[in-house]
Amino acid sequence: MCLFVVLMTASCIKTENNPADETETVTERQTASPDFTVTEPETTTLPETTTEPETETTTVETTTAPPDHSDLYIKGISTEMMVEYFAETVLSAEYSRDTGHKVLVQKWNKPIRYYIHGFNYNSTDVYYITEFFERLNKVDGFPGATRVGLGESYDLEIKFCTRIELQAKTITVDETCAAFTSFNFNTATDEIQSGTILYCHDIPKDQRQSVIQEEILNCMGMSDDTLLREDSVIYQYSNYNTATETDMTIFRILYSDAIKCGMDKRQCANAIKEIYY
C-alpha cells in the first residue's frame, strides 16, 4: 500500500374481604282451598329488539407528496451551483491546481485522533479546534475526531510553530503564510490516512478562529480555497469569516454515503444531483 503526500494547502492569515355468610331462605308452600281461584299470571310481552346492521368501514389510503427540496438544500443555491462549489473545493488542491494533476475525492474513512502541541498556543486556540471538531462530529458519515494527549498515538498532528519553522517546512509558501496543511492518502483507495496542520503562533487574535477552521476543513478533504464565494471561510483572499452554511453543506455532501473516495468530477456531479435539490 503506497502512501504519500500530494495535497497541501495554506492560509494566508392490593384489601382482602371475608365472604358473606350464605343465608338460605325457605318459603313455606300453602295449599289453596277448593274455593280458591288461581289466576294465571299475566304474560308480559317485551318489545322487539331491532339490531342495527353493521356498518362497513372503508379505509382510504393517502399518499404524502415528496418534499420540494432535500434537507441539504440552501435557498438561493441551485443544484448546478452546488456542483460547481463542490468541484472547486474538493476536486482541486491549492498547490496542484496548475499542474494538470487530476484530483479525485479524498476523505477520512476511519476515526481521527488528533494531537495539539507546539509553541505559544493557548486555551482559546484549543477551544476553537475542539469546538469545531464537535460540530463536524455531528455530520452524518463523518467518522469522528477525538483529541488525544501526550504519548498517545495520533493520525492528525496540529502544531503551533514559529514563522521560521513554518517557512522551513513549507518551502512552497512565502513569508505571509499563517498556516499550512498536508495529508497522506492511500493511492489505491484515496482514503486519507494521516495529516499535519501547522499554525503560526503569532496569527492575530481576530483571525485565529477563521484560520483554524479553514485548515481543518482543508485537511478533512476540502483541499482547495474558493474564488466563487467571498463569504466562505476558505475564500482565497482571506476575509477571516467562520464556516458558513454553504461551507458546512459542502462538508456534509463530501461525507454523505453518495460520495465515495476516488470519485471524479462527473461522478460527483451525478451523485450531488440525487441528494441536493
* Helix share bin: 25-40%
Order of helices and strands: EHEHEEHEEHHH
Percent range for β-strand residues: 15-25%
Distance between the termini: 38 Å
Strand order of the largest sheet: 1-5-6-4-2-3
- Helical segment tally? 6
Radius of gyration: 38 Å
Largest sheet: 6 strands, mixed
Q: What is the domain tally?
A: 1
How many beta-strand segments? 6
The second-level CATH architecture is 3-Layer(aba) Sandwich
Write down the CATH class.
Alpha Beta
Low-confidence stretches: 14-39
Please state the structural category. Answer: alpha/beta
Describe the global form: elongated
| Quaternary status | single chain
Rounded average pLDDT: 83
Q: Mind explaining what this structure looks like?
A:
- By secondary structure, this protein is an alpha/beta fold.
- Strands 1-5-6-4-2-3 form a 6-stranded mixed β-sheet.
- A hairpin with a 5-residue loop joins strand 5 and strand 6.
- It has a single domain, classed as Collagenase (Catalytic Domain), CATH 3.40.390.10.
- The radius of gyration is 38 Å and the shape is elongated.
Q: Can I get a quick summary?
A:
By secondary structure, the protein is an alpha/beta fold.
How would the blueprint of this fold be written?
Blueprint: E1 3-11, H1 79-90, E2 112-118, H2 123-137, E3 145-148, E4 156-161, H3 163-169, E5 179-186, E6 192-200, H4 205-219, H5 245-254, H6 265-275
Helix pairs in contact: 1-6, 2-4
